[in-house]
Amino acid sequence: MPQFIGKPPYRCSLCGQLGAREAHGEHGIICEECYKKQAPICDFCSVVNPTWEYDCNTFVTKEMEGYRFVNEWLACDVCHEFIEDDDYNGLLKFSMAEYRRNHPNPKATDRLERLLMEKVGEIHNLFRKNRIGSCKLIGGQVK
Question: Which of 44, 55, 103, 123 is most buried, with most CB under 10 Å away?
Answer without folding.
Answer: 44
